[in-house]
Amino acid sequence: MNLKPFLLLTPLLLLQGCGGGDGGDDTATGQLTLSGMQGLSYQTQSQTGKTDAQGHFQYYAGETLTLSVGDLQLVSGVPADNVVTPLEFLSDTRALLDNATVDELGLLSHRPAEQQAIENTTLRNLTRFLLALDEDGSTSDSNRLVFTDRVISQLNAALPTLDKPIDFTVPESQFINEVTEDGETTDDADLTPANRLLKAICFYPEDDELCEDPPTQAEIDAAPEPPENGTARDPDVVYSDELESKRNRILNAIRNVEDIDSDDIDEYLTSELDSITTDIANEYYLSQVTQELPASDTAIHEVVVRRVGQKVSLAKIEAISTNDNALVVHSYSAQTHSVEYFIDGETGDDGELIVNFKPDDDYRWLRKPLRVIIQ
User: Which residues are bridge partners to 357 per DSSP?
Assistant: First the structure.
């Protein structure tokens, strides 16, 4: 019996059973920000789908994400992970995140790198656009972004009408307002591609008057003037001031990327980054949080970094004492994920040992304190 055809066919059958977005046993579930981005289309090398209310997507380890809102591709080549923040959408910002710097305590911190990444122009334009496209255009109640099917349907219909594609890499001022060659801002009739797209989308219920075309100036001019001297209005007549008011309501309801200011972008991105740092830090704890030792103690003590329900694997670790007159750091080791220390004070002295460590699967530095009291 010739086994070669069977042997060649078997791997193909196995591969066919692994694909698709069915969330099989060996797939992982990732999330776009802790708050979530709902309604984005995603694609990996093996999975495809749309993010749910929590921003979940399916992937296999080592795959990358392509993210789109409707037919508009936003980013590609994004490393899929348990939680993906907007700072990881772009290669330029991802490259910055491992550049930890020393802070005022003399400890390494990832936060300056995050703040530098937040200033990336492309990231800010992309974030501004997503915030403007959100269901209610606001993150005041929750940072979760929702892109509804109705909005996406209107976006897809409007995309082919754009005279040029949306370019997230242009300067922020140009992304907000179209600029002429001499640097002057054009009038409102010449909208940027992003604003053209937003103008074509009504975020209100389909039967809402705000989704109607606004009355033209010609229609307003042709309408009868409202009666004067207290004369009652005819309920069957639409007067010019009513049309003018309706026009203003509809025009004021049109969204613009400029509605999202720089503070909105900073607040959203910073809040998401702080949330994920806190969430990851909550997975770790020290073997002790308080230690009481007699002043006569001369031993070297150890505190160990642990992880809830999982094995600890650290890339780096360091530690400082907030009071070197009472508490002294002896040594630390990422391999044993521990810090050794001894006391060097008198009864009544105390200090904190701040353990600073970086998990080997993340760019973030996390901190845990141990309070030591000398009795």
Answer: 317, 366
In contact, 167 and 193? CB cutoff 8 Å = yes
Other Cβ atoms closer than 10 A to 35: 19
Which candidate, 300, 286, 283, 294, places its Cα nearest to that of 370?
286
What does the block give as tokens for 281? Answer: 């830090």
Query: Shortest CA distance to 82 belongs to which of 111, 105, 113, 59?
Result: 59
Residue 259: phi, psi to the nearest 5? -60, -25
On the CB side of 92, CA atoms within 13 Å amount to: 11
Query: Residue 291: beta bridge partners?
Result: 372
| Nearest one of 191, 189, 243, 237 to 218, comparing CA atoms | 243
Q: 177-216 burial string, b = 16+ CB within 10 Å, else e?
A: bbbeeeeeeeeeeebbbbbbbbeebbbeeeeeebeeebbe
For residue 166, give the DSSP letter: -
Could you tell me which of 268, 250, 263, 276 has the C-alpha nearest to residue 131? Answer: 268
User: CB burial class (10 A; 0-12, 13-18, 19+) of residue 271?
Assistant: middle
Per the structure block, which two tokens stand in for 92? 């330029």
Q: Partners of 370 in the beta sheet?
A: 353
Q: Which residues contact 123 (CB under 8 A, 6 or more apart)?
A: 86, 87, 89, 90, 93, 117, 269
Cα of 329 vs its chain's centroid, Å: 37
- φ/ψ of 75, rounded to 5, equals -145, 160
Q: Look at residue 374 and give its three-state secondary structure.
A: strand
Q: Rounded to whole angstroms, how far apart are CA atoms 43 and 28?
A: 14
Rounded to two decimals, what is the model's pTM?
A: 0.86
Joined together, the tokens standing for residue 95 give 């490259």
Beta strand pairing call for 101-102 and 108-109: antiparallel
Mean pLDDT per 10-residue run, the chain (375 residues)? 40 37 71 97 98 97 97 98 97 96 97 98 98 84 89 98 95 79 48 95 95 96 92 94 96 94 95 96 97 97 97 98 97 98 96 97 97 97
Alpha-carbon gap, residue 86 to 271, rounded angstroms = 12
Structure tokens at 29: 């579930």
